[in-house]
Amino acid sequence: RDNNNWQQYSYGDKEAYTLRADYALNDTARLKTTLVQTNLDTAMTGTLFESDYRNNDHWQLPSYTITGCAGATCRGTQNNNHVDSLGLDLKHEQNFDWMQSRLVSGLYLDFSNNPYISNNLSIVRNTATGQYINYTPNNAANPTGVRNYEARITNRAVFAQFEFTPVEKTRVVLGGRSDSIRYDFTNFLAPGGSADFGAPNETREFSHFSPKAGATYSFTARTSAYVNLSEGFTPPEVSQLYGKTAIPNLRPATYNNYEMGLRHKAMGGALKVDSALYRLDGHDTIVNYTIAPGNSENRNAGKTRSSGFELGLNYAQGAVDGRLGGSWAVHRFIDYQASSTLDYSGKEQPQAPRQLLSAELGYKPTERLRVSLEAIKLGQYWMDNANTVQYPGHSLFNLKAHWQIHKSLAVWGQIRNLLDKRYADNASSSYSGVGVYSPNTQNQYQVGAPRTAMVGLTYTME
Fold first, then answer.
1. pLDDT band at 147 (very low <50, low <70, confident <90, very high)
2. Is 375 left (phi over 0), alpha (psi -120 to 50) or beta?
3. How far apart are CA 381 and CA 49, in angstroms?
4. pTM here?
5. C-alpha distances out from residue 306 to 3, 155, 210, 353, Å
6. What DSSP designation does 247 have?
7. How would DSSP label each residue in 68-94?
């Protein structure tokens, strides 16, 4: 239960229940069944314009796609998106004496139904403050945006992975996965025309085979190195294809990943080091391109590349423990022609910071009590595709405590944003790099929470 929060329209109620049953068919096979029921009733917070964030005023903007403001009247939508699924996930492992090998294979099937309904709103806006005051349904006057469709999704995949040791201290992995996903789209409204009620019925299918290969070499019992080559496959989502009037001609995105790393244990195992160099080449990456504030569409971005270095350190010795995680990377458009006049090739991708750091130092005065201080550093990043508007990044500190009162009962607490820093969880800009730059209408900031205290109780039944 979350009520009377620091931010307007951020209240919400959530209930979640999980029931799981495991049954051993025999010594080598197990059947697992899980039933999850979740109820979520929540309001929707909004973002701040440039002038709002600069002045630290908390006039909130509901985030149900408000567009087309003319004076005190705006247009918007509210929607209901439902998904129910039935799936089967089979996995088999077989060990062999030959080169200490192992074969892992499996089958995945998923049948989902995704109905979606959206209705238009006529929204009243306070022109002096920029705050949205109230709304009423307005489908007749503004049919654009009304949707009532269903997408039946069939997802099939088979995979296999073979692991073996050709020579001492070397482990090799070879594998592959074949995916096929099919969308059966039904529009319950009259498509197209002046009413603009979405696209006609259709069936669309995407399929791909993704190979992978890797090897690990152990120099000593404490030091090992690895190399991985793999390919990923990401088909367009239902909302990306059918969320608007016309169905975009989206191609599935594929990614080639090249990675090499080193793992090492020092100080008698008290210090663990995990480092990696990687490069991720994307083809037909699906991006959301903002034509104007409140008006965006999904496109394939041609080619992208992410390359960087990741480092993880973990230390535990006596009453003191700590961790450090860092990522230094560049995420760039290699080929992205947004329009006949806008070419973002060579630009860095927006909302992709070069630096991400997190560190935590913990102390256990007793076996049952642990307190820690956590630091998070988010580096600067571009807010727009043209790399002209920049978010400076931020640093946050969190204080945590955990007290195990009994083996079944524990109390924990956190003070997040300890220094009460003003920051944004997300910052974006629709400025294209051409024409007049208007920060107050083109820049939006998802406000981060101020200093917040939380206390929890955990009880474990045995």
1. confident
2. beta
3. 18
4. 0.78
5. 41, 28, 19, 11
6. P
7. EEETTEEEEEEEEE--EEEEEEEEEEE
